[in-house]
Design goal:
The chain has about 475 residues and is of the alpha/beta class. It contains twelve helices and 25 strands. Strand 19 (about 305) and strand 20 (about 310) form a beta hairpin.
């Protein structure tokens, strides 16, 4: 059946109840009240607006409970904003001609259709799983991804059902390393396994090698250049080991698959909504697809990289919230545009903090830029001040102009958030020289007299000048 509509009201339907979807719904509601706009949001899980990024810290015990990771419950949306949130409801198909979605209530099996005037696809992403039996966790106990609150809950239950002595985390990216640290905090012996030659491949090798050193010094095991070939179960169907592509056998009573994510676009693709070269949904700056009345936002869409101009798919909650807000503003009668991304991100592995923004050296070269770069070592505070810690900063600039293209940081406490000032400078097109002269604060508890990022900018400017043809420097 198709549910009825209230005469005179437009209807907005949202698929996906997390960051992008509920930001879109909330912003549209601010633009148009319930008398003008009816909003229905479908979410296949039980929760809305939760922090997936906090799951490793919940696993490790730093976050006390599931509810702490939920920013806004379905009831809050229903009562305060009059958004009809329907959880545990799966959208099966989109009919763009009839402007309908077909849905199934997971708990009852009831199926029905809902008509829309505007549809927001915010289906997010799904974990990448290797083509190995049991890797989806369906027929092998003890194998998990770290993607939703349900994953976090299952991992915590697995840890609490008995003594888990050993674990293997497959993937040395952000989520993999954060989860490895969380498991180590729970007393588990953890080995991180990755087929790449270095961890955190979004960094340049001369920076990621220091991350590898930090991982090993933290007490985590690290095996690089070797991938997952087989999950080895016991007679009860519980994982007991993994076998690597080189033939190693690693004991594991728990396996975490942290191989990244891919955009969840099956619904859109089936409905004929175009995908781009990244495999994500193509949208314009207002978050419109090329299908009338259909918008998309979050991990399932392509963005434009501000420096390279190329389409990218970057799965970050920061982008998802902003993109959802842009879609909702436009649906609600206003005007907004999403300018693009730099891919700014940060994390930590025990004491070591890691951050990056903009283009890496490889990405800049592939985008056609001539590249000049420097790496500097300094301290997070004045060297004589107690607890001054080591920090390493890499800056990348365009050859000739000195325009800053990227920054990377690896260091101890109070290092990572310096990436934000670099992201701001790159966002606004500053050169290394302009950034060097920026009026940044100084006090011994916070930095040397010249902050490490400023020292790097000075050296980068000098390197750009040395790189110029003779007579032009």
């Amino acid at each position: 059946m198709v549910t009825g509509m209230v005469a005179g009201r437009a209807r907005m339907v949202v698929i996906g109840g997390d960051a992008a979807g509920m930001s879109a719904a909330s912003q549209a509601r601010r633009g148009k009240g319930p008398d003008l706009l009816e909003i229905v949001a479908f979410e296949r899980g039980p929760d809305t607006s939760y922090s997936a990024c906090g799951i490793p810290y919940w696993i490790g015990g730093l976050v006390t409970g599931r509810d702490a990771l939920i920013a806004r419950t379905p009831d809050v949306f229903r009562l305060r904003q009059q958004i009809d949130v329907r959880t545990r409801t799966l959208v099966d198909a989109i009919d763009t001609t009839a402007r309908e979605v077909r849905v199934t209530e997971l708990d009852t099996g009831r199926q029905y259709s809902e008509r829309y005037d505007d549809l927001v696809i915010a289906t997010g992403s799904v974990p990448v799983t290797p083509p190995i039996p049991g890797s989806d966790g369906s027929d092998l106990n003890g194998v998990f991804a770290v993607h939703g609150l349900g994953d976090g809950e299952r991992i915590r239950t697995h840890l609490e059902t008995g003594r888990i002595a050993s674990a293997v985390v497959v993937g040395a990216g952000y989520v993999g390393l954060e989860t490895a640290e969380a498991l180590m905090a729970r007393g588990v012996a953890v080995t991180v396994l990755d087929h790449a030659a270095a961890p955190m491949t979004t960094l340049d090798p001369d920076m990621s090698e220091h991350v590898a050193t930090a991982i090993k010094e933290s007490g985590l095991g690290l095996i690089l250049g070797d991938g997952l070939a087989e999950l080895v179960p016991d007679d009860s169907g519980r994982v007991r080991a993994v076998r690597t592509t080189s033939g190693r056998r690693l004991d594991a009573e728990l396996v975490i698959l942290a191989l990244g994510v891919r955009p969840e676009v099956a619904l859109a693709e089936k409905a004929g909504i175009p995908l781009g070269p990244t495999g994500a949904i193509v949208v314009d700056r207002r978050m419109r697809t090329d299908t009338p009345g259909v918008w998309a936002a979050g991990d399932c869409v392509e963005s434009t990289h501000l420096l390279s101009g190329r389409p990218v798919n970057v799965a970050l909650g920061t982008h998802a919230n902003k993109q959802g807000r842009v879609a909702g503003e436009n649906i609600g009668g206003g005007y907004a545009a999403f300018p693009g991304v730099l891919g700014t991100a940060a994390t930590k592995v025990c004491r070591t903090e890691v951050a990056r923004t903009g283009l890496s050296t490889r990405e800049a070269s592939e985008a056609g830029f001539g590249v000049v770069s420097v790496v500097v070592e300094s301290t997070t505070r004045a060297g004589y001040y107690p607890d001054a810690a080591a920090i390493r900063v890499k800056l990348i600039a365009e050859r000739g102009t000195g325009r800053m293209l990227g920054g990377q940081i690896v260091g101890y406490e109070e290092s990572a958030k310096r990436i934000d000032i670099l992201a701001t400078a790159i966002w606004n097109g500053m050169t290394a020289q302009e950034f060097f002269f920026a009026d940044l604060s100084y006090a011994p508890p916070y930095s040397p007299v010249l902050d490490p990022v400023v020292i790097a900018a000075r050296q980068l400017h000098d390197a750009v000048r040395r790189d110029l043809p003779q007579g032009l420097e």
